[in-house]
Amino acid sequence: MTELEQIESALLSYLPSDNCTEKQLIESMKYSLMAGGKRIRPRLILEFCKLCGGDTEAAMPFACAIEMIHTYSLIHDDLPCMDDDDLRRGKPSNHKKFGEDIALLAGDALQSLAFSVMLSPKSVESVGADAAAKSAFVLAECCGANGMVGGQTIDLEYENQKASLKILNEMHQKKTGALINAACQIGCIIAGASKEKIQAAGKYAEKIGLAFQIIDDILDVTSDEETFGKPVGSDLQNNKSTFVTSIGIEKCRELASVLTKEAIDCLKEFQGDTEELINIANSLLIRKN
Amino acid sequence: MTELEQIESALLSYLPSDNCTEKQLIESMKYSLMAGGKRIRPRLILEFCKLCGGDTEAAMPFACAIEMIHTYSLIHDDLPCMDDDDLRRGKPSNHKKFGEDIALLAGDALQSLAFSVMLSPKSVESVGADAAAKSAFVLAECCGANGMVGGQTIDLEYENQKASLKILNEMHQKKTGALINAACQIGCIIAGASKEKIQAAGKYAEKIGLAFQIIDDILDVTSDEETFGKPVGSDLQNNKSTFVTSIGIEKCRELASVLTKEAIDCLKEFQGDTEELINIANSLLIRKN
Among B26, B171, B245, B273, which one is most buried in terms of CB atoms within 10 A? Predict the structure, then answer.
């Protein structure tokens, strides 16, 4: 099995059985969680864990947990009271398929499931209670009020007003960057890596996270719905400040390229095979969806 | 300070500072978290912890975490796509005050904050990583797809069809009971209590949880909006199966009374002062809101 197949199979195994009264909820959770995607965040956890000499099998619950958090945020983001998107990864968004009420609850339950999976007796036995608690704490902080959800709030607030480059940076660092940062740090924590390594992983994360967002802004104006897998042009339509509206497409491409090189430089802190982490950084730069 | 005042003050202390770009989100979280209420779940954690010889100060993060989970569920429950309630605890519900988007995010962030607070370095230092991870796991399970959120799903599913008494029981055991159960168990876990004691606490919880829900169903038909603090008659209006529609008001009163006595009997497993836990059980039986 490839690493990606291992992640898919583990994700499926952590979903509760749908042989229960709340069957529809479980189906809705499964619909979004198993909808494919690049699984960047889980792969980052596994790669950093491997690079620091850790056991990737023990890291798997954490890899799946972060994807559950990411998935819940996408479900809630698509709701009519948020971005009101009908399409996600080329398929009807969760609330289009299951209704708003079930979509809301599926997101809520995926967040709980993430913490359940990280802190299960089996997971605690594999990585130790200290590393499990520390990793779950990092994820909780990164996805909460001063992390991912904070970033979404800033995004809402600046929907119809011009955001400075400083605000744009803060918004993206929180909205997208925080979770990528959590992934890279957690991989190191589970492997028992040094503070210096955890810090270097955090810097790599910060840079690829920002590059990721800049590319997203570019694709929103240059791609088409079929390739991108979600509606394009929505930023312009919503009058949103983006990196593209702030500094233009050409400077955006340059900046993303520089950030990717800087991210790859951060990997010098590590001894061992960094090829896959270099690939991830480069693949985010040239991605089409 | 009374115990209730200690809980209020701790809750406030765990909220992130609103001196940040996502100020509105923090205000929205604070609005609902600090809206009063009986704080039953935190009190149950503290009381069981005390009863089992544990340190209530160390238990406080967990007491606050469970109230954060409870609060997030109320915010999401009130949303237009769910119960669409304009009033909560006598005040405009969160989305009426802050808008649906912020209310959704405030609920999401309160769930993350609960896990942050339980697993913070300070909390882990106080109770040990094992007890912290175990308690957070119990809470995650109880509030997730086969717990609280599962119960809400069953509730939605049976909104316009008759539910059997078995389904009603399952729904309430999950929707309300699971969180009360988590509270009683976590109090014991933090104090390092025996399996037998954790089990007895779970039984006490199950019985007061069910009594709580039966009283809720009674109040929905016998109270008025001002006393109840939320709209009344909504069950009938929504054509919902309740304990009252299933077995009638008189049998409901009897059943709630029997369950309360049985709950109090479960406390015989414990040596020590059970007065407050007896009071809580009795207060739920005679409550007006």
Answer: B171
On chain B, the residues whose CB falls within 8 A of the CB of A105 are: 76, 149, 152-153, 156
- Range A3-286 classified under CATH 1.10.600.10: yes
- The backbone region for B90, taken as left when phi is positive above 0, alpha when psi lies in -120 to 50, beta otherwise, is left
**Residues A229 and A89: beta-carbon distance below 8 Å:** yes
ipTM above 0.90, yes or no: yes
What distance in Å separates residue A105's CA from the closest CA in chain B? 6
Cβ atoms of A52 and A197 closer than 8 Å: yes
Instruction: State the residue for tokens 């509270």.
Output: B183
**Three-state DSSP class for B238?**
coil
Q: What's the 3-state SS for B82-147? A: CCCCCEECCEECHHHHHCHHHHHHHHHHHHHHHHHHHCCHHHHHHHCHHHHHHHHHHHHHHHCCCC
Give the predicted TM-score (pTM) of the model.
0.95
- Pairwise CA distance, residues A182 & A147, whole Å: 10
Alpha-carbon dihedral angle through residues A4, A6, A9, A14, given to the nearest 10 degrees? -110
At A225-259, the pLDDT tens digits run 777 666 667 776 667 788 998 899 999 999 999 99
